[in-house]
């Protein structure tokens, strides 16, 4: 499995041009006569369907593990990428700043499997984008992949969150469902359509929180409010660089 780890003289011009015109007409006639327009067709769209479910497991210190189950179906042999790219910063609630504060997260320990085979993968950074992905050429039919990674430094206390408790921020690597699990009680979940403003999203299911893909399609991030003290959090890394 190969996976990604990125003149003539002025007197001759008229004659030459006339001859070229004849050749072009003749060539066009030949092409038109031998390849009927109705027989020209583009290759079919290779993608028949894609699906992904993120499962986030949040620890008491605000760090979390992400596991993605990803499937796709191809109509023909084609390349596909498991995983994806996200922004490494989360826009925090703020007042009056020209450049608002961003909470910078750290991504680590990536692993990806494609059809059960481990792929070569690293966390790659470009400006403020983080890429965790692997690409390969797959045969027609259904294929499965898993993506795992860890996120630290994506949680802040009540002063920055302005909601009480602790706010943990998450961004989907690929479109899909999200299942949130936490060692601490989940008070609320907000999806940010225009950060840092958020609207309640998802629903509680037992001790977990479920968010559908339609609720995340256009959002920047998910803000998960936990009923816990910020004393156990690591020092947040906050800057004002987009």
Query: In CATH's first tier, which class applies?
Result: Mainly Beta
Summed up, the helix count is 3
The N- to C-terminal Cα distance equals 37 Å
The percent range for strand residues is: over 45%
Query: Mean of the pLDDT scores?
Result: 81
The total strand number stands at 19
Protein structure class: mainly beta
CATH topology: Immunoglobulin-like
User: What's the shape?
Assistant: globular
The main pleated sheet reads as: 8 strands, mixed
Q: Would you identify the regions where 5 or more consecutive residues have pLDDT less than 50?
A: 1-40
CATH architecture: Sandwich
Number of spatially distinct domains: 1
Provide the succession of SSEs: HEEEEEEEEEEEHEEEEEEHEE
Task: Give the strand line-up of the largest sheet.
Answer: 7-6-10-2-1-13-17-16
CA-atom Rg in angstroms: 26 Å
| Portion of residues within helices | 10-25%
Topology readout:
Elements: H1 10-34, E1 47-58, E2 64-74, E3 78-87, E4 89-91, E5 102-104, E6 106-114, E7 117-119, E8 124-126, E9 129-138, E10 141-152, E11 155-156, H2 158-161, E12 166-170, E13 177-182, E14 186-194, E15 197-200, E16 203-205, E17 208-211, H3 213-216, E18 221-226, E19 238-239
Parallel strand pairs: 1-13
Antiparallel strand pairs: 1-2, 2-10, 3-9, 4-5, 5-19, 6-7, 6-10, 8-9, 11-12, 12-18, 13-17, 14-15, 14-18, 16-17
